[in-house]
Amino acid sequence: xxxxxxxxxxxxxxxGIGGGTARMFAGRGAKSIxxxxxxxxxxxxxxxxxxxxxxxxxxxxxxxxxEAVLNFFEGIGSSLDVMFNCAGITSVKGLMExxxxxxxxxxxxxxxxxxxxxxxxxxxxSAQKSGCIVxxxxxxxYVGGIRTSPAYAASKAAIIGLTRxxxxxxxxxxxxxNAVVPGLVDTDMxxxxxxxxxxxxxxxxxxxxxxxxxxAVLFLAGEAGNxxxxxxLNINGGMYFA
Length: 242
What we know:
- By secondary structure, the protein is α/β, with parallel strands linked by helices.
- Helix content is 42%, strand content 16%.
- Strands 3-2-1-4-5-6-7 form a seven-stranded parallel sheet, with helices on both faces.
- Strand 4, helix 4 and strand 5 (131-136) form a beta-alpha-beta unit.
- The protein is globular.
């Protein structure tokens, strides 16, 4: 489960699950980490923190923009071991309150970004015949968006389909693609005043820390996961069994 000498790109890397995973990667021997986000204050702060352990750079990237993603990859070089697609947004607006603009925004950040970053990562990984891509889905993909916009549930279901399609594409060239599927996680999103939940919903009795999800990403990205591809790993404290 070590990241010894590996290079990783993390979208949504300024905080939340992305930031927690960046910290875990750095602590487990990553050689270099690239953080892509639009939260410049926290992104730069985290990059500075992680430089104690490895090379780390933060880049402001609109992850929905193909041009911005292409520009980002021009700067990272020709070697990449792990692509972690963690950028994501949600909304608590219901079906009738969800307009096309909100739908497209959620789909753009949650799905289009994963497609764009995975495509460019796959170019590098295919050439070197190795690498791992990990996406982030959600329990909402299975149970629907009970507290969130239907666009969020749809976007996270799309991530599962994208993960399986990319796994089929990448396997012949030595690239593995998997997804983590969290339930409730203690992040700024779930701390928002309009996002209501109860720990009584979780059989284990508490919501996940970002490190709980990061540990699963580390497992999938490391040598222990070398024979795993096309899988969607549920991490929800017993809320749902797929």
